[in-house]
Amino acid sequence: MAKGKVSRLNAFVALKDVTHAYGSGDGFPAVEHLSLSIAEGEFAAVVGPSGCGKSTLMKLATGLQFPRAGTILVGGAPVTQPVRIAGMAFQNPTLLPWRTTLENLLLPLEIVEPHRSRLKRERGSYVAKAERLLAQVGLKGQGGKYPWELSGGMQQRASLCRALIHEPQLLLLDEPFGALDAFTREELWCVIRDLHAERRMTVVLVTHDLREATFLADRIFCMSARPGRIVAERVVDFPRPRDLEVTYTKAFIDIVHELRGHIADARKTA
Amino acid sequence: MSAEADTVSATAEAEARAVRDAAARARASQARRLMLAPWLCTIGFFLLWEVFCRVFGVSSYVLPAPSDILDATIAYWWPLLFHSFHTLWMTTAGFILAIVFGLVLGLALGASRFVHAGLYPLLVGFNAIPKVAVVPILVIWFGVGWLPAVLTAFMISFFPIVVNVATGLATIEPEVEDVLRALGARKLDIMLKVGVPRSLPYFFGSLKVAITLAYVGSVIAEYNASRNGIGNLMARASADFNVPLLFAALIALAVLGIMIYAVMAWLERRMTAWAQRSQFAA
């Protein structure tokens, strides 16, 4: 009890007893009595059965939706409007086909202050920054290509860059590697691992892949079937930086197995 | 042994080259056939028409043969050219009005659900009215002249532009909207950065439909309420029972129609190359 209190004090993202339903009136809630807290700079993963309200959690944390009941704090302040300090990436890369990859990266800067008003004057330095970021995820020199000239994995890398270009304090990833083949997915795990190690932003990763969650996260939340709430919380304390080899150790497999048990229970009670 | 192997591999190479060359020739000849296809079909169509008229001895008061129409075209080349230009001018003016109005209304419809719900039934109803019935009203208001033709062209052609622009806006991917809204984007930002570029292929696609409709509109109005234009020329030719001239005017309309359609199709390819990656129709 006392420990929970301490972690909530310096929490960067905190949801307290949150209930939310879509549509008007008293529809069946997507999440109910949902509480969790994530520390600043922490890499959190949320796993759970399909349709358990993981995406709702993302929308609530970014201020795209407001809960029916409960409170949400991001960066110490209650969420009353879109949070602006968040970057988002989804399973579908959603790059705009009429913009080159580089122009897609600059899109958030055309929206968010203070970059918005600076972009025109300091375009050169912003472009250089975008190119550095592209090089960092293995897309060096690909900025001039259109998204449809890139493979699925490359598009997803570009989508990650777009989520990070404005240096958000909070990065939300909604099954970002779900549509990729196993090898590309593991490559991108390492990309996101290194980006987090360098920038120390707070990350919330929503995923179905328990190995992905265990490899990347410091803390894993298991959600119940709809209406979603947290049924288990697991700290993963493998030392960083983690190598892909860690996924073949006994300790790693035990955690995946344990999570598997929680999800199976959640599905049964549904 | 090795010399033998060399000859074998040389023969195989030559065979492979021959196969490649044959494939390239086949592709080139298919491209040539595709280029010729429209000309062959058009010439064939007129030949059949000519043969039909001659074999059955059809009177040129009923259906003039293409050779009669050609004679009439040569005899009346100046009036045909003059009135075609007039029609083209009326159509273009009405079409430009339709683009401006259609874009503004389409953006409004796509941006606001309230505007969409309120105006859509009204628009569908208006579109269902045959515009030929509106021409007499325009004549009462503005008299016989160029204005009824321009307005009819405008009224008949703005609807597809409105519908297509609104559709383009309505089909923005929700994830893109989420990404931008989470950054604090205003509705106007999303419209300008995503909605408008996204609706451009729909917009340019609709122009091809709209320009031919505008053309129909101006001819209808000229037929009923003008002293100039191909429509007016046709009205006078039919009063004189000059059927070959009537047909010559129809063919002038068709040629003009193909030309303006081609201009719009070219514009569409130029402006929205990113949206035309499909190999489906190739």
Automatic annotation (TrEMBL), chain A:
<feature type="domain" description="ABC transporter">
    <location>
        <begin position="13"/>
        <end position="250"/>
    </location>
</feature>
<dbReference type="InterPro" id="IPR003593">
    <property type="entry name" value="AAA+_ATPase"/>
</dbReference>
<dbReference type="InterPro" id="IPR027417">
    <property type="entry name" value="P-loop_NTPase"/>
</dbReference>
<keyword id="KW-0067">ATP-binding</keyword>
<dbReference type="Pfam" id="PF00005">
    <property type="entry name" value="ABC_tran"/>
</dbReference>
<dbReference type="InterPro" id="IPR003439">
    <property type="entry name" value="ABC_transporter-like_ATP-bd"/>
</dbReference>
<comment type="similarity">
    <text>Belongs to the ABC transporter superfamily.</text>
</comment>
<dbReference type="InterPro" id="IPR017871">
    <property type="entry name" value="ABC_transporter-like_CS"/>
</dbReference>
<dbReference type="InterPro" id="IPR050166">
    <property type="entry name" value="ABC_transporter_ATP-bind"/>
</dbReference>
<keyword id="KW-0813">Transport</keyword>
<keyword id="KW-0547">Nucleotide-binding</keyword>
<protein>
    <submittedName>
        <fullName>ABC-type nitrate/sulfonate/bicarbonate transport system, ATPase component</fullName>
    </submittedName>
</protein>
UniProtKB/TrEMBL annotation, chain B:
<comment type="similarity">
    <text>Belongs to the binding-protein-dependent transport system permease family.</text>
</comment>
<feature type="transmembrane region" description="Helical">
    <location>
        <begin position="34"/>
        <end position="57"/>
    </location>
</feature>
<dbReference type="Pfam" id="PF00528">
    <property type="entry name" value="BPD_transp_1"/>
</dbReference>
<protein>
    <submittedName>
        <fullName>ABC-type nitrate/sulfonate/bicarbonate transport system, permease component</fullName>
    </submittedName>
</protein>
<keyword id="KW-1133">Transmembrane helix</keyword>
<keyword id="KW-0813">Transport</keyword>
<dbReference type="InterPro" id="IPR035906">
    <property type="entry name" value="MetI-like_sf"/>
</dbReference>
<feature type="transmembrane region" description="Helical">
    <location>
        <begin position="200"/>
        <end position="221"/>
    </location>
</feature>
<feature type="transmembrane region" description="Helical">
    <location>
        <begin position="88"/>
        <end position="110"/>
    </location>
</feature>
<dbReference type="InterPro" id="IPR000515">
    <property type="entry name" value="MetI-like"/>
</dbReference>
<feature type="transmembrane region" description="Helical">
    <location>
        <begin position="122"/>
        <end position="144"/>
    </location>
</feature>
<feature type="domain" description="ABC transmembrane type-1">
    <location>
        <begin position="84"/>
        <end position="268"/>
    </location>
</feature>
<keyword id="KW-0812">Transmembrane</keyword>
<keyword id="KW-0472">Membrane</keyword>
<feature type="transmembrane region" description="Helical">
    <location>
        <begin position="241"/>
        <end position="267"/>
    </location>
</feature>
<feature type="transmembrane region" description="Helical">
    <location>
        <begin position="150"/>
        <end position="172"/>
    </location>
</feature>
<keyword id="KW-1003">Cell membrane</keyword>
